[in-house]
Amino acid sequence: EENGPNGKIQLLRNIYSDTNKGFLSEDKLEELVNGIGYIKNMMLPPEDFKSLGIKNFPKIYRAYESAKMELGLLDFDDMLSLCLDILEKNNPLLDSYRARYEYIQVDEGQDTSNIQHKIIALLAEPKNNLFIVADDDQSIYGFRGANPKYLLDFKSHYPDAAVFSMNRNYRSTSDIVYVANSLIKKNKLRYDKDLVAQSETSNPVGIFKLDTRENQYRHLLDSLVPSEFEDTAVLFRNNISAIPIA
């Protein structure tokens, strides 16, 4: 259990405290967990990860790996690295999975990492009956190791593959799609495509630039209309951002 007495979170808190003689805050805990996941998913040595907020990161990483081994524990990232290790070293097992799963479909392909791509490539060979559904514009998990560049190089990995673009949006109005199109085109590392909205225009999207958090919250409060509460949603990036809003 991740949050149990012998879980991942408590283990990391203890190791951080022993190493840095200090308390691991929620922000730093999130950075530490993401950093460990990034290293495993990108298949990097811990020294190559530049942690701005975690002092002695490589030392903490190695202590965490040693503690898991001593306690006989695995986290989610270990499932990936051990899976790849087993498949690479055990040809009969790999062949049995290749024979069992002749066709492979990957959903949310923009969120897959280097190690996941490597596992998929191993399983798909030699027939490469591989079908990936992905949106490179929705890749937001790079900090955890997701690597959309693999999608952009898809044809070089699988020269016989066909690429289909589904550019009609059925979820949002044309106002939203137009603004989203204009913004995402600033990103040059993407497939060049234009989204088209199925829905007609509704209300224009308002964009406000505010210089402080306090002004942001004040603008938000001033914009809320009590009679429209049931039809109003506030989106925020992470749980910590919800505290001042609450």
Give a quick precis of the structure.
By secondary structure, the protein is mostly helical.
Along the chain, the helix and strand elements come as HHHHHEHEHHEHEHH
Note the gap between the termini. 29 Å
Spans with pLDDT under 50 lasting ≥5 residues?
none
SS content category = mainly alpha
> Helicity level, as a percent range?
40-55%
Report on this structure.
This protein is mainly alpha-helical and 246 residues long. The chain contains eleven helices and four strands. The protein has helices at 8-20, 26-42, 57-71, 76-89, 91-100, 114-124, 149-152, 154-157, 174-184, 213-223, 239-245, and strands at 104-106, 130-132, 168-169, 196-197. It has a two-stranded parallel sheet. It has a two-stranded parallel ribbon with strand order 3-4. The longest helix has 17 residues, at 26-42. The protein is flat. 15% of the residues are buried. The mean pLDDT is 90.
